[in-house]
Amino acid sequence: MGLAGKRLSTAPDSPIASPELGTEALLRPGATRAAAPVLSVLTALSFSHLLNDAMQSLIPAIYPILKSALHLDFVHIGLISLANQLTASVLQPFVGLYTDRRPQPFSLAIGMSFTLAGLVLLSFAGSLALVLIAVALVGVGSSVFHPEASRIAHLASGGRLGFAQSLFQVGGNAGAALGPLLAAVIVVARGQSAVLWFSLLALIGIVVLTGIGRWYRRNLARRGTARSPFVHHGETPLLTRGRVILSLAVLIALIFSKYFYLASMSSYYTFFLIGKFGLSVKSAQLHLFSFLFAVAAGTLLGGPIGDRIGRKSVIWASILGVAPFALALPYANLFWVGILTAIIGLILASAFSAILVYAQELVPGRVGMIAGLFFGLAFGLGGIGSAVLGALADRTSIPFVFQVCSYLPLIGLLTWLLPNLEQRRRARA
């Protein structure tokens, strides 16, 4: 990969070698529109995101193995999940804030090294304490990866910010789906020690991310920004401080709506199908795969559509637009459940890229911090949502959980409070 990265970065006709693709691209929004996205960098970031999230999703997939091998209780499993989620979510905004001020071209490779260390330790951890340390290290690697990788995707976007974030994000969706599958094939059959095989993914990631780091360093140095980061450019905010805070609060509420609903689907959709329609576990898993496939497709489509029609329009459609389908889902027959969930996954997943880029435009110069905040919220709210909805299901029933969650997309009405940044930018120009 080192040679490949070198070839991509030095070819005369390569977009990576273009002198126009530097930090000044972010200074002049109009100028970035003329540049082409650096597809080699964006593809490498998406692939790295796949590796990162595959390793991250491995941890909950092997809970049954850890519980049996180490004689753990469910309380211990909760502690393991807490240690991983805290480091993977809470740290992200702080990592993003630091690297906004002091860009670190090789922080991605360093973060993946934390993941590597965590996987190696997890493969032979013989006590709860060692498992907690191991999963925390994996979480640290993820907390470093997301904000900095999102910043580089922003830089390599050529002005097509939504497209860049969608391509980056779809790798994570694929990795999250791939991790449990690899765990079932590799770890379940061979035991906890087989986790060591996943360290190969981390090693591949380190090589790929080192190549990306070299490209990032060249682009910083080209504009003399190694000591004066591009994030401190002279672009002035489009809104007052109070309006920015209100808009961010609305976006956080929309993220809550999206990820609590996704938690209900990813964690309890199979139980819903088995309980209501009497499906086998295998058939229910196939339905879940169809939903996850629709989520991946929606993630990929949402960003480019937002680049064309405006991010607020995509946010309107992707959150509130899900409401009629979500409200109908708990009462539909099996045929329509399959169709409705595919539509829901396709539409709802298109929201994240639009929300993230919209938030980054709200707060110019804080690309990493905003990415860390929203990726952290996505991690944290997904975990909290699963726990809260699980407790609700224990007290009531799975169908009741789906009835309650069907109202979550109505929170999308708050989108009305968001200003149209595209119109304001055109008015200022």
Describe the protein in words.
This protein is globular. The longest helix has about 35 residues, at about 240-275. With about 425 residues, the chain is mostly helical. The protein has helices at about 1-10, 30, 40-60, 65-70, 75-90, 90-100, 105-125, 130-155, 160-190, 200-220, 240-275, 280-310, 310-320, 325-330, 335-350, 350-360, 365-395, 400-405, 420-429. It has two domains: about 1-230, MFS general substrate transporter like domains (Growth Hormone, Chain: A, Up-down Bundle); about 240-429, Growth Hormone, Chain: A, CATH 1.20.1250.
Q: What's a quick, concise take on this entry?
A:
With 429 residues, this protein is mainly alpha-helical.
SSE layout and pairing:
Elements: H1 2-10, H2 29-32, H3 39-61, H4 63-70, H5 74-90, H6 92-101, H7 107-124, H8 128-155, H9 161-190, H10 199-222, H11 241-277, H12 281-309, H13 311-319, H14 323-328, H15 334-348, H16 351-362, H17 367-395, H18 398-405, H19 421-428
Helix pairs in contact: 1-10, 3-8, 3-9, 3-10, 5-8, 5-17, 6-8, 6-17, 7-8, 7-10, 8-9, 8-17, 9-12, 9-16, 11-12, 11-16, 11-17, 11-18, 12-13, 12-15, 12-16, 13-16, 16-17, 17-18
How large is the share of residues in beta strands? under 5%
Radius of gyration based on Cα positions: 21 Å
What level of helicity do the residues show?
Answer: over 70%
Order of helices and strands: HHHHHHHHHHHHHHHHHHH
Structural class assignment: mainly alpha
Per CATH, the architecture of the largest domain is Up-down Bundle
Low-confidence stretches: 1-34, 225-234
Termini, distance in Å?
43 Å
Mean pLDDT: 81
Query: What can be said about the biggest beta sheet?
Result: none
Query: How many separate structural domains?
Result: 2
Instruction: State the shape.
Output: globular
Class of the largest domain, according to the CATH hierarchy? Mainly Alpha
The CATH topology of the largest domain turns out to be Growth Hormone, Chain: A
